[in-house]
Batch of 3 targets.
Target 1
Amino acid sequence: MFQKDLASIVSRIRSQFQTLAPNPRLLMPWSLLEPQHEALGKDVGYVLNVPTGIQPSHVSEFLEEWEQNKPMSHPLLFQIPPATELSQQDRVIDLSLRMLNSWEVTQTGQMIQKPWTVSDRRNVVLMPDPILGVFTSLSNRLCGRRVVKHMNIGRGMRCLILDGEAGGMLAFWNESAADTQTNLSMYLGDNPRWHDLWGNHLPMINDKGKQQFKVDREPMFMEDIDTNLALFRASFHINEPFIESRQTPHNRVVKLHNPWNHTISGHISFLEPKKWRITPKRMFFSMAADADYEIPIQLSFPVSETAGEKQLVARVEFTSQKRYDVNFTTPLELGLKDIDFYSHLTIERNPKSGTFDAVVTQRIANRGTEIISLYSFANMTGYSRQERLISQLHPGESIIRQFRFRDGAIRLKTQSIRTGLRETSGPAVINHNLSANDLVTH
């Protein structure tokens, strides 16, 4: 792709510039997809061209290799997809996510290619591309800040905590959550300011001491936050978030970090998941400045608990320079790591009776290394419990089971079906809850 004698060409260019300046700084146009040219030396920088083919979520992966080798400089030049290929909103989101994901890895500078467009008037006139406004606004927000931590705000959503000379800031967006717009409520400071990508100040509702705001695909920003509180909130996590769906106690460790430069103390109370037994339920803590803190806990849940994504919710009451009373959350997942279990619900007309039946279909796969035997079941109020034996399911094998509830379609308006698996000789139980909202149409 590049000339074989590129190193000698660069050497001649350097010599020519040295006649004008004693220590010229050379920047080579380069593609982010290409590795560094070892023969050019460490005193040559690169302007890295970021093509539109690199997804925003993958930009940081390409940049990490460059950060490890640490060339002299490597500002980024973002290619912008034309308005004929993407809607204006998608162009704005694409650029902003590239900028945010890149800024998390490197702060060596960002540029955009050809930030202008041509007017549709009779006399052709060059005009600023509307996307230039977003680039300018976001550049000003990032300047004087760097990403210091991620904060959990829910599965599929991202929140970056930025801090620096310009002050603390949060950047939110929906990366892959099923709901395109999610309502959030949490305390982030006394008077935080909420902005969109264009720099517009947006109104924000305060309810019972919490800020209410929405997160969607387009990144949004909150400034004037309580940065240390955000860092404290972000430090709240559990050492092993995946929990086997077995009726035995599960020991875990909740971890926190004190970001303040002084000791904080208070109480932590575990509130959710509801109906779970969490021991200890409430305890006192005292954390030294800039110290890590661990809380051993034991979790158990009812036999009817459904598998899937959960949240460990804790109320944290503590005193720093003022008194705080806030809720922290961290994700959990309940399931069986060696078993893939999928269930879905359909409505089918019974060819014999003519009734509309509720039909549950299960797909079970053994992803472990041992032979397993299970009972599969489905239960709906008003019907006898249905259960079938799955004997000797070998590693790598899968099987399908189906349960029919005659004339069950009408009952789905007011009730649901519990379906799942349990070990024939063991504590493992996995439950799914299927309702009319889960119906699969053919």
Target 2
Amino acid sequence: MWMKQFPIIGQHTSAVLLGKKMPKYQILCGSRLKPEMAIKTLKLSGVQHEDIMDGKQVGRVSIVTGKYRFDLGGHIKYIEILIGETGMGQSSVDITQAEFLSVASGEPVVQIRAGTAGGINSDKDQKIAKRPFLDLGDLVVADENIGHSGAIEQRLGYFRKVTPNTMPQLGFVNPISDQEVKKEVEAFLVKAYKYGLKPTLDGRFLRNMNDKLVTKALVDAAGNLGLDVSQGANFTKESLNGEASEEFMAMLRKRYGIMVSEMEQLTNAFLAKLARVEHGIKAYSGMIVAVIGAVPGHGFPDPNNREQMRKQEMAEEQTLKIAAEALVKIHKEQN
């Protein structure tokens, strides 16, 4: 059973609570509203609200499954897709994505995050980053992720320690030494490399790559739909409000070439790699996001401005369409 191959603790989603096999092609969304949006946007048939039983909510997140229609040589075919709410932030993803992995009906398991993100523009000279200026409604396919992840660190057995030289004012009775911290960091990095993680050159953040199979499929799918997408690096942050200053964002753009910032994908990509390396599950991850605000530049949409809100909604719908078509492309290539 898949649940035995990918270890999970507890039962937090209806996928696990009901003991059902779920589609191996999965679109992951942070928002509870997105699975419902996908039903109409993707014109799904055979829709099942997997989180509803006897009229009551089951599990802690919204899950919809259905059949997505595509053409194959003039013949109508379908693939089954799961659209699942992951919740917001990497700690939530560490639970929900793992459970979606554990109940997948076969291989390869392809998980595409179709979400929203903040665009990051340089504060002074846009040419420094050699990236396009981003605005509300733009679409970005992330090929790599940079950021922090307490979820990843704890999975790999690393807990940041306070030493006498870092926070002496706290006056710990038995603080560990800098040398002990160094050993822990080195041990952590050995494990991290195994799962496709490495530190940035300055040692400030972790970084990993989204799977090329998925990234290429997303870019190709957007082109086939006649939609423009940018491609580049993503910053996955731990705190929505704590890492949002214009100065910090501009630094990310200049130093690391970051184009967008969100809160989940670094861990998404890690879990897919973990599934492959540690548990022999062919799992792959990628991300397409709609820019719903940019700094510096266009702020977040005004809820009272219908034009801006519709622009955001259209971009979110487009991420779902691109993700679904990318899954079809991968399905054709794998079969």
Target 3
Amino acid sequence: MVLAHAHADHRGAAPGAGAPVYCHPDEVVDAQSERGEHYFDYDRIKLPPTRWLMPRLLRACDGGPVEIAGTLEEGDEVAGFRVVHLPGHAPGLIG
């Protein structure tokens, strides 16, 4: 299983999948920690109801810390696909 990044809504069910999980090196610490959105700034969300709801929704989606079996970087190949590093939304976002 490949995590595009370690935000709660992406790691979701990964801890219970029973498959090895891979991600970019920049996401390992967040994937293996209790919360992968430590750098989120919820104060930047302009609508108060959304600002209140977002962290709660992310926690509801989160399956918890994920054991990372290995890392993938720009140019690596997985199942015939080439890994591309796309930092921005998350430091180690890959596609």
